């Protein structure tokens, strides 16, 4: 510790180099931080909201594009621990023009009386909720969506059908908000869908969302629901709402491997940069090491000083990188997102700890060989050394 | 007067550890960019090579994909009589009514199962797909519960091999053949008898699309206009090529991620290159002074250091290209939101991608080298010579 000021002075002797090294480390570590945050958010499950933790989604095992018989609802309802079951259907369709991606938002039909029971985190003024439930051709839109496309109460929304052979002609009756996550959807009444469909199509449901009585029962309910229909023509796949959202990610390829390889490449690059600078910086001062030795500094304290300097630069780089990463996360949060997880992306404490440890480790690792060599050089050789 | 290039090369060799470390940093940056580009390129190739130039795909108006298109059999009956459709030897119109659906099969990579497209066709459908050749087994017999699978599917899905039965709809289907087509997107499909499949999915009257071969280029355009504007039909007609081309944006996210990461890494590498070059300049202060005394101009010094930095970066770029070369022709699959199923394709490290990597490296080198080179050129001769 008593060498701290010496270490500090040493790292400032070549300010430009320290600045460049720190910037370069910071930028790479920022990237690494964001990638790790993403990985963490996606695969270690950032704690879902209090409502979401109790919800499960049931879909056709083959693919979400296939319906299930509507009577499944009553069978699911009887599973122990199920508090409520909401039937809903992805409508799809085209609003205005799909070439403008702002016009793309999820449009779903759901049972109006159960929607708010199951989505416990939806907040909507009582009178708007009533107005929606009383109007078969009414709909509610999320706050973010309303802001994006300027929807107000009483506005008409016309959507052209693609999956379904009919168009929607709806009136905005309410605007809902959520504490976190999804508020970019539009919901309309299940009855509207039912009225527009003919024959056997009326007996099909796209998806069910289950609200479990408690969080601890979620896993068991999932298994029991799937077991109910294992011998039926339409087998089901029941998973937590969180996992359901993630299942869409698979469409973009193997995200896990992609993120891992990026992290690997970035870490290795950081190591290279850092090792390179430390080697340069130590070489430059072999003569100085000789002088320190003549003054009575031991080999160990010289080694410690050089390692300390490198670790400090690594740590500063890590710290700056962390701040940059927090900023980058904020930008990602604002960006239009496909998965809900990026809406709340932030550097979680475990990621923070890993990142800082890694930056110190890299600092140490990159200095070990040059520092060891310098500390070992004999006084005479060191004093005679010219670069 | 120009400073010889060999001076730069020798300098890079003398400081080989630093040179290699800096070059490797640049190499990794280039590799990340190229890997994502190779993926997107492979996807693009798979889709742009698909589709026959004379084929027209007809779907219900408003539908962007065959999967969401509810195409009625009665509409198909009206379409067959349109003029401009090519005829086969027997005089039948080359128009194929088809049904597309998605099934789930476990693959080598994901035992949880991936989605695959199943296409129900009639004998005409086989005739119109004259690009598909059998490479194993035989074509399915119409009227039986048999399927033939595309080459990519046979490779990636252990369940979809000849003699095996796969389960979808109301029961088992026997795999009797494997086909291969030059049109890559086709290789990710399972073909079967239209009527058998439609019965299983209760879609006897509501199918997906019609694939029509026009007699020639002029007729194709006329036919597309005729079909799209006929109010009774309520359909959308487009060339098969257009349909596939629109799907190649499935790689958008990976492409975005790759470019984003590579750009940030490039800034980091730029700083690292700058560091290396500053060190090079500092260590050679005396040399620079000597060169100036010998009569080399400030500009020669500037360009010499810049060239050295770019040479360093080119070395990095080349290593980066070597790193991604093993990815060439690697097969992988990606999901498509148009077909809701998996498309298999191969990564492509094409010459133009390699060139992009090299240019990217040169940009990193040029930016990294500019300031140190300017610094070297600015030095006063006397000061430079006096340095130890």
Describe the structure.
The complex is a heterodimer of chains A (387) and B (388). Chain A is of the alpha+beta class. Chain A has 2 domains: 4-47 and 254-384, no CATH class; 62-234, no CATH class. Helices cover 52% and strands 16% of the residues of chain A. Chain A has helices spanning 4-12, 15-43, 72-77, 112-118, 126-134, 143-149, 190-196, 218-228, 241-247, 255-283, 286-294, 299-334, 349-376, 379-384; strands at residues 55-60, 68-69, 82-90, 94-95, 107-110, 122-123, 138-142, 156-160, 168-178, 186-189, 204-205, 207-212, 236-240. In chain A, α2 (15-43) runs antiparallel to α10, α2 crosses α12 (299-334) and α10 runs parallel beside α13 (349-376). Chain A is elongated. The two termini of chain A are 31 Å apart. Chain B starts with a helix and ends with a helix. Chain B folds into 2 domains: 5-48 and 249-386, no CATH class; 62-233, no CATH class. Chain B is 49% helix and 21% strand. In chain B, β7 and β8 form a beta hairpin. The mean pLDDT of chain B is 87. Chain B has helices at 5-14, 16-48, 73-79, 123-128, 151-156, 194-200, 217-229, 240-245, 252-283, 285-293, 298-324, 351-378, 381-386, and strands spanning 55-60, 71-72, 95-105, 114-121, 132-137, 146-150, 165-168, 171-181, 189-193, 206-207, 209-213, 235-239, 331-336, 341-346. In chain B, strands 1, 3, 4, 5, 6, 7, 8, 9, 11 and 12 form a 10-stranded mixed sheet that branches. Chain B has a two-stranded antiparallel ribbon with strand order 2-10. A two-stranded antiparallel ribbon of chain B has the order 13-14. By secondary structure, chain B is of the alpha+beta class. Chain B is built from 13 helices and 14 strands. Chains A and B meet through α2 and α10 of A and α2, β3, α9 and β13 of B.
């Amino acid at each position: 510790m008593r060498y701290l000021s010496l270490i500090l002075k040493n790292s400032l002797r070549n300010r430009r180099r320290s600045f460049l090294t720190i910037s370069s480390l910071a930028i790479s570590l920022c990237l690494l931080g964001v990638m790790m945050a993403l990985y963490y958010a996606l695969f270690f499950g950032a704690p879902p909201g209090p409502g979401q933790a109790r919800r499960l989604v049931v879909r056709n095992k083959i693919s979400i594009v296939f319906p299930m018989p509507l009577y499944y609802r009553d069978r699911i309802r009887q599973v122990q621990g199920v508090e409520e079951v909401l039937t809903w259907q992805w409508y799809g369709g085209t609003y205005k023009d799909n070439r403008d991606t702002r016009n793309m938002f999820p449009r779903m039909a759901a049972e109006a009386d159960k929607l708010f029971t199951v989505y416990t985190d939806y907040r909507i003024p009582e009178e708007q909720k009533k107005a929606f439930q009383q109007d078969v051709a009414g709909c509610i839109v999320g706050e973010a969506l309303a802001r994006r496309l300027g929807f107000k109460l009483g506005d008409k929304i016309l959507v052209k059908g693609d999956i379904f052979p009919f168009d929607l002609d709806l009136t905005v009756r309410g605007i809902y908000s959520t504490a976190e996550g999804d508020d970019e959807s539009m919901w309309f009444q299940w009855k509207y869908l039912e009225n527009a469909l003919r024959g056997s199509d009326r007996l099909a449901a796209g998806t069910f969302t289950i609200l479990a009585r408690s969080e601890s029962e979620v896993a068991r309910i999932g298994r029991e629901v799937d077991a109910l229909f294992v011998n039926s023509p339409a087998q089901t796949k029941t998973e937590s709402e969180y996992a359901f959202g993630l299942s869409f990610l698979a469409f973009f390829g193997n995200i896990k491997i992609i993120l891992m390889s990026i992290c690997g490449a970035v870490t290795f690059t950081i190591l290279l940069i850092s090792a390179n600078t430390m080697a340069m910086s130590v070489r430059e001062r072999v003569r100085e090491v000789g002088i320190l030795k003549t003054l009575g500094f031991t080999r160990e304290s010289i080694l410690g000083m050089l390692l300390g300097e490198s670790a400090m630069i690594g740590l500063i780089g890590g710290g700056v990188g962390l701040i940059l990463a927090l900023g980058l996360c904020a930008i990602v949060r604002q960006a239009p997102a496909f998965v809900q997880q990026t809406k709340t992306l932030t550097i979680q404490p475990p990621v923070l700890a890993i990142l800082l440890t890694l930056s110190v480790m890299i600092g140490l690792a990159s200095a070990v060989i040059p520092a060891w060599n310098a500390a070992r050089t004999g006084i005479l050789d060191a004093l005679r050394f010219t670069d | 007067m120009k400073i010889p290039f060999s001076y730069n090369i020798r300098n890079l060799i003398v400081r080989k550890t630093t040179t290699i470390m800096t070059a490797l940093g640049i190499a990794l940056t280039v590799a990340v960019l190229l890997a994502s580009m190779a993926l997107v390129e492979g996807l693009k190739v798979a889709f742009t090579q698909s589709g026959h130039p004379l084929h027209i795909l007809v779907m219900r108006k408003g539908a962007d994909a065959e999967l969401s298109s509810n195409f009625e059999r009665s509409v198909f009956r009206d379409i067959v009589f349109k003029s401009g459709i090519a005829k086969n030897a027997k005089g039948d119109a080359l128009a194929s009514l088809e049904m597309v659906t998605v099934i789930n099969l476990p693959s080598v990579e994901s035992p949880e199962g991936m989605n695959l497209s199943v296409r129900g066709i009639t004998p005409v459908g086989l005739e119109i797909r004259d690009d598909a050749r059998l490479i194993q087994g035989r074509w399915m017999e119409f009227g039986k519960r048999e399927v033939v699978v595309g080459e990519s599917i046979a490779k990636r899905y252990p369940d979809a091999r000849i003699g095996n039965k796969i389960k979808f709809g109301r029961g088992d289907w026997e795999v009797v053949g494997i086909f291969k087509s030059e049109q890559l997107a086709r290789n990710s499909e399972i073909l079967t008898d239209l009527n058998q499949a439609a019965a299983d999915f209760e879609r006897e009257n509501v199918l997906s699309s019609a694939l029509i071969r026009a007699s020639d280029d002029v007729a194709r355009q006329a036919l597309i206009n005729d079909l799209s504007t006929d109010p009774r039909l309520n359909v959308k007609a487009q060339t098969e090529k257009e349909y596939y081309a629109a799907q190649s944006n499935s790689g958008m996210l990976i492409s975005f991620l790759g470019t984003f990461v590579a750009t940030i890494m490039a800034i980091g590498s730029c700083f690292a290159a700058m560091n290396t070059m500053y060190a090079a300049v500092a260590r050679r202060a005396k040399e620079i002074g000597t060169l100036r005394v010998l009569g080399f101009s400030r500009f020669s010094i500037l360009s010499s250091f810049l060239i050295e930095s770019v040479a360093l970066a080119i070395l990095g770029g080349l290593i980066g290209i070597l790193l991604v070369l093993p990815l060439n022709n690697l097969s992988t699959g990606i999901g498509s939101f148009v077909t809701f199923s998996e498309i298999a394709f191969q990564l492509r490290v094409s010459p133009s991608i390699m060139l992009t990597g090299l240019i990217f490296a040169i940009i990193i080198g040029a930016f990294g080298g500019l300031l140190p080179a300017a610094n070297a050129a600015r030095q006063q001769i006397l000061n430079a010579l006096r340095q130890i």
